[in-house]
Design a protein that fits this description.
The structure holds 2 protein chains of 2 kinds. In chain A, the strands form 3 sheets. An 8-stranded mixed sheet of chain A has the order 3-4-2-1-7-8-9-10, with helices on both faces. Chain A is about 45% helix and about 20% strand. Chain B is an all-alpha fold. In chain B, strands 1-2 form a two-stranded antiparallel sheet. In chain B, helix 7 runs antiparallel to helix 8. Classes of the chains: A alpha/beta, B mainly alpha.
């Protein structure tokens, strides 16, 4: 049955990220299955009003000011007139909110339940329980999800985390993983190697000759002394929670310690892409141990350049995150044929089978152990081939499958009966001793506000 | 269970199972409650209360001695001499636990400080002369409050700062010193301040807090205060009883409500 789906989130194009690309890809796939999809977000710079994107995807850039961390001020009901108007004029049948950090999504879920529209919420991240900000956010999530028809999480660990945080029943939470474009993230081919040669040619002639001699000499040197080069690639934001402190300790150890497998000496190089507060730490480590020839820092890369400038130049992808709900980066790496070494945190153990990934504990010794095992695997050729990796990702994580599973969720919730007003207010009332009744009263007040708006628009037009 | 294969906790298989299905035995199986929980014994709680109570008693003693000086109950010479005697006894006690070399350097610093302090005291006691008495008392009370807040009670925290504690103690002293008559009295008060806010904390690092000893200190300070301000002394006694006994025992009782949840979603802790 054809639905009109409204995706609501603070995070959308032109901002780039996991949630944004998830919304985009899911919308495109749902549209190709015959549904009507619109996206609602807040304005970015001068992108304000209604814009049409590929395949006539209608995007509403609402004139609401972002307040903190690209999210709008959480007024709970401040965007009610806008969203109510959009839902009614577009004849929306399903409201789909994304990301727990997005206050616009939570407001949309609230307003959807006011207008008796079935709603779905997708949670992309894991949360702790112990610090003050987590406690407050979890309380808000409880109120937000109590009247939502269904919730989607991206991994089983994410499902457990969401159920514990918000108190929703386990049957009302589905696990639908993210997906990637495995056609674009494909292993290195002949076209890529010749592309690199063209790049070398394009630089000035003297440079080209110099580089040619240098590379040739270097390759011959390595061949004569049976030295094999293995490149480890790291691509993430350089922040604390991505485990960059661990990486800073590992870099000098691997680059300075000699490594021999069988008869060949292995030279392990690094390419690190990304930017953030911890970048300075890595640059200091490189300075201190003179690793400029062994470690290349690429800085921030556009998502479209990740495959060409980072992934196909490596043999191993290293992920040292301290917490992760579903790591898209490792799936992209496997799709390009790399072997993955990753810390076993959050939902990472559910993503890939053992033949594509080495899972290690988040401490230096275990990561070093994992890296050496991976290097041995790459050098001896015992790992799965690049085509096999790409085929696996193509079959397991593709957007058509995700869209089909999401569509199943949509049809299930449109068939369930919407609870009456008393039940919804009672749900809110029972969520907390003091805040529960307050939210219940607020909900009723908004209900009357909606009736007033309906009468007003009827008499004005 | 459509295709007969068992459910596995992964994202790339489990075809045939609906998306919202999780077998009950594996759902939240990795949840752990109250892992690595630190529970304090009654003795530890009371010791913690004792440290804070002792600091309060010291501040109260300081205030009562200032009032004695002002009312004329004790003379400034008497105060200086008695402080010097206690200082010598204290050094001899300290000698048993600390090396002689450190003691000699400490002794040299003390003598230097006393000489400089005595020389500077005429200026010191005129510093806040023009400010009204009520403001002075309020400022010094605020200074003492800050001192008590930032004092190092043995547990690290963001507001703990020994330099701020010492400085606010000395600030309160300078405020109060202006209400005294002669510069010798001001010097006596300064000597007392250094004794209370510098030497006693150093000494207490060596001697562990003891609930009985700090109870004794509390009684002494309340009695001293009672001589000049009886009603405030009652309030002080109630406050000290709260800090040293009621609150630690209450904390100990409330520990049974501690509940923490751990699981695979936790952020890894780097060692």
């Amino acid at each position: 049955m054809q639905q009109c789906i409204c995706m609501v989130s603070d995070f959308f194009y032109p901002s780039m990220g996991g949630v944004e690309s998830h919304i985009w890809q899911l919308s495109q796939c749902l549209m190709s299955r015959g549904h009507k999809v619109i996206v609602v977000t807040h304005f970015y710079d001068d992108r304000i009003g209604i814009r049409y994107m590929t395949n006539f995807l209608k995007v509403y850039y609402l004139p609401i000011l972002p307040f903190y961390n690209k999210s709008i001020l959480p007024t709970i009901v401040g965007s009610l007139p806008y969203l109510r108007h959009i839902f009614i004029t577009e004849k929306v049948t399903i409201v789909h909110g994304h990301s727990a950090f997005s206050s616009l999504a939570h407001e949309a879920l609230f307003i959807a339940s006011l207008l008796d529209i079935p709603s779905v919420f997708t949670d992309h991240s894991l949360f702790g329980f112990s610090d003050a900000s987590a406690i407050v956010t979890n309380e808000f999530l409880k109120y937000s999800l109590v009247n939502t028809s269904h919730t989607i999480c991206v991994s089983h660990t994410g499902k457990e985390n969401t159920v514990l945080r918000s108190g929703v029943k386990a049957e009302k939470v589905s696990v639908i993983p993210n997906a990637i474009d495995s056609v674009r993230f494909s292993p290195q081919t002949q076209i890529d190697t010749s592309q690199t040669e063209i790049e070398l040619c394009d630089s000035s002639e003297t440079n080209y000759h110099h580089r040619d001699e240098d590379t040739d000499y270097h390759l011959n040197f390595m061949k004569k002394r049976r030295v094999r080069s293995v490149t480890i690639v790291v691509g993430s934001r350089l922040v604390y929670r991505k485990g960059i402190d661990l990486l800073a300790i590992i870099l000098p150890i691997i680059c300075t310690k000699p490594c021999k497998i069988g008869n060949t000496w292995i030279q392990i190089d690094f390419i690190i892409a990304g930017d953030g507060p911890k970048r300075i730490l890595l640059e200091e480590v490189i300075e201190k141990h003179n690793l400029q020839q062994r470690v290349e820092m690429l800085g921030e890369l556009q998502h479209s350049d990740i495959r060409d400038k980072l992934l196909i130049k490596g043999d191993i992808f290293l992920n040292t995150s301290l917490t992760e709900a579903f790591c898209m980066a490792i799936v992209e790496a496997v799709s390009c044929g790399l072997t993955v070494v990753s810390t076993n945190v959050g939902g990472i153990s559910e993503v890939l089978p053992a033949k594509f990934i080495f899972l290690v504990e988040p401490n230096v010794d275990a990561i070093l152990d994992g890296i050496y095992k991976a290097v041995e695997g790459v050098v001896t050729g015992t790992r799965a081939s690049a085509e096999e990796c790409n085929q696996f990702v193509r079959q397991a994580y593709n957007w058509t499958q995700v869209a089909a599973r999401t569509e199943k969720v949509y049809s299930a919730i449109t068939q369930t009966k919407i609870p009456p007003l008393q039940k919804k207010v009672r749900n809110l009332w029972e969520c907390g001793r003091i805040a529960g009744p307050i939210m219940g009263v607020l909900y009723l007040a908004c209900h009357y506000w909606c009736i007033f708006l309906a009468l007003w628009s009827h008499y004005v037009t | 269970m459509s295709n007969g294969k068992a459910w596995r906790k992964c994202l790339y298989e489990n075809y045939g199972y609906p998306d919202n299905y999780t077998p009950p035995e594996s759902f939240l199986a990795a949840l752990q409650k109250n892992k690595d929980l630190k529970l304090y014994t009654k003795k530890e709680c009371l010791q913690g209360g004792a440290v804070v109570g002792r600091e309060f008693s010291i501040v109260l003693t300081f205030c009562s001695l200032y009032l004695y000086l002002r009312e004329g109950i004790i003379e400034c010479d008497q105060l200086i001499i008695s402080l010097s005697i206690v200082l010598c006894i204290g050094y001899l006690q300290y000698l048993r636990k600390v090396y002689l070399a450190a003691l000699i350097s400490g002794g040299k610093m003390t003598v230097l400080f006393l000489a400089v302090g005595y020389a500077v005291s005429p200026i010191l006691y005129k510093l806040t002369d023009t400010i009204s008495t009520d403001t002075i008392h309020l400022m010094s009370a605020a200074g003492f409050l800050l001192h008590l807040l930032t004092m190092d009670y043995g547990i690290p925290g963001p507001i703990v700062s020994r330099s701020v504690a010492l400085n606010s103690g000395i600030f309160s002293t300078v405020c109060l010193a202006s209400r005294l008559e002669s510069h010798v009295a001001a010097f006596a008060l300064l000597y007392l301040a250094v004794f209370c806010f510098v030497l006693v904390p150093m000494w207490s690092e060596v001697y562990n807090p003891n609930p009985i000893k700090s109870l004794f200190t509390a009684l002494v300070s309340v009695c001293m205060l009672a001589k000049v301000m009886p009603s405030q002394a009652v309030l002080a006694a109630i406050l000290l009883a709260f800090i040293q006994f009621v609150i630690p025992l209450w904390f100990h009782k409330l520990q049974s409500f501690k509940q923490t949840i751990h699981g695979p979603w936790d952020e890894a802790v780097l060692h």
